[in-house]
Amino acid sequence: MNVAIIVFDKFTDVDLWLMWDLLNRVRLENWQVRILGDKDSHVSATGISISMHGKIEEANRADAVLFVSGQGTREKMRDENWLKRFNLNPEKQFIGSICSGSLILAALGLLKGKTATTYPTSKIALEGFGVEVVEKPIVVNGNVATAGGCLALQYLCGWTIENLVGQDWRELVLKSVQPVGEGLFFKDVENLIKLYATPTKAKTV
Amino acid sequence: MNVAIIVFDKFTDVDLWLMWDLLNRVRLENWQVRILGDKDSHVSATGISISMHGKIEEANRADAVLFVSGQGTREKMRDENWLKRFNLNPEKQFIGSICSGSLILAALGLLKGKTATTYPTSKIALEGFGVEVVEKPIVVNGNVATAGGCLALQYLCGWTIENLVGQDWRELVLKSVQPVGEGLFFKDVENLIKLYATPTKAKTV
After folding, report:
1. CA nearest to B17 within chain A
2. Taking CA atoms, what residue in A is nearest to B13?
3. Tell me: the pLDDT tens digits for B139-159?
4. Radius of gyration in angstroms for the set of CA atoms belonging to chain A, rounded to a whole number
5. pTM of the model
6. Dist CA B39 CA B114 (whole Å)
7. Where are the beta strands (DSSP E) in chain A?
8. CA-CA distances (angstroms) from residue B147 to A7, A93, B95, B123, B183?
9. For residue B12, which residues of chain A lie inside 8 Å, CB to CB?
10. Residue A136 vs residues A131, A132, A183: alpha-carbon distances, Å
11. What is the per-residue pLDDT across A100-121, written as a single tens digit (0 to 9) for each?
């Protein structure tokens, strides 16, 4: 199982890293998460430079492809040379976005005639693609999901994990990041030890 | 206002980045957040290498000092040479931790005779320092706060922001990351535009 996270310059920091951290809590031998871009490294909205694991074309072979958000989406949604490097298949792949990442899904034609959600500051731009924007944390249409509001990454990653490796992993991963006393409890310690027993398969960058 | 985030090898990715992203949503001219370590760069639990803004001694002059979590805390809580580089003052500084970062606060003598919270897998180790561990997302004693469970970073960063720049910034920052339809709404767009109008003061690393 391969999950591709698509990054570009001026991405929203937490949208990448909450996604990355949650997805890497799945500790299965055949599970791999890779951060992909069109350069060797990309710089976040706050100026953090991060090396990529590979190029965006890899996404065309992934089981799931998730797009981050940020100011950079405004440029990428109009960048025909960048967009045409993707050849995603919503019949075979799970495809999702957080916040303004939905603008890229729309530009790729994946939201045609569908409802979707996005960050409030991207609503008008998404409607410009003819998409009906609804005020929900996650909107799923077939194998395509859009999520809005950074912490809705819990829903988007949960959806991805459940579809690829089942509901038990979804529940264990999401529980592991909840506030203590509000979804995560000291009695959960045995399950957490089980969760962290297998080293992450993440590749060093 | 300077906020220092203390990092070490094998830190939990989301604990740094959710903290960093939330704190950088405060867009005031005199607000700065810096990531500090004892090397030029540190590697996360999943193998992500990140450059530091400066060395840990800077924390001794910061208005707030926040410790991240991760496997690395087990080594650092016993590293006398590292611990003695800190000269923190809970009378003058706000000092906090997320998850197992509480082990470092305890090792620094900041939790003596106090209650605290931590991640479930760190409860026994924290009790080993004579700390009474309670099952709450955040425990505040004077200027020292401990938070448990990654998403309790909302409480820890909210506490930090409120103490340094007031309740309005706390509310605006925390609202900006909530799931759409569950705390963040399309009608909030004007406030979000105001929030993002000022460029972040984050320094490129």
Report:
1. A14
2. A21
3. 999 999 999 999 999 999 999
4. 16
5. 0.94
6. 31
7. 2-6, 32-37, 41-43, 49-51, 54-55, 64-67, 94-98, 115-116, 132-133, 138-141, 144-147
8. 30, 38, 11, 12, 21
9. 21
10. 14, 12, 22
11. 999 999 999 999 999 999 999 9
